[in-house]
Amino acid sequence: MKIRPTCDLIWETVMNESAPPAEAPATEEAATGSTAVSRWMRTISVVFVVAIIAVVVLWFVGGRTIHYHAQVRILAPPAKVYPYLTDPDLLKQWMGDVAAITPLDDKGDEVGAKSTVLVDSNGEKLEMVSEIVEITPDKSLKVRLTCDMFVVVSDYQLSESQGATELSLDMAADFHGLARITAPLISSAIQEKLEADFHRLRDDVESAK
């Protein structure tokens, strides 16, 4: 008479212990999947926010006037160096990527004289308008370059020292539109180009007869 209750007890125990685990794996899988999705969503959200912050920062930084400076010592008097700053053919020799300089008037080397400057960098073309703002032959030259993306004012100063010329350039650039975002990213490249151009200018002047 005691055998049946014992069998019933064993059967109930087996059923009670075996039933719940059947649902456990599905619950764990759902929880794991939900956790993975949540992590991806958080990661995407963080990346998106960081990207927005980066663009905003670049926009404000690029909206400020960015200054560049270059200088070089040339073993030639200022009278020999100066034409390389004003003559279109000589300018194209040392200014990298400048394809053409075309006068827009007959003012020559006078304040207010304008020219179009065509830059061709690996097939990417950009046209600017150049205007002489200030000029003192053999001593100084200030030029403003204008296009849709920026306004650049270049101030050249020449001084003589023991028969050589100390040439310096102070350039102030104001960027507009989308160029404001890229300006801080390309500042170092612009600086390197200015220095390379000045070295080319020095070599051209010193090698000229």
UniProtKB/TrEMBL annotation:
The organism named in the record is Blastopirellula marina
List the protein's name.
SRPBCC family protein
Any Pfam family from its record, for instance, is Polyketide_cyc2
Domain of life of the source:
Bacteria
Segments traversing the membrane? 40-61
Keyword annotations of the record: Membrane, Transmembrane, Transmembrane helix
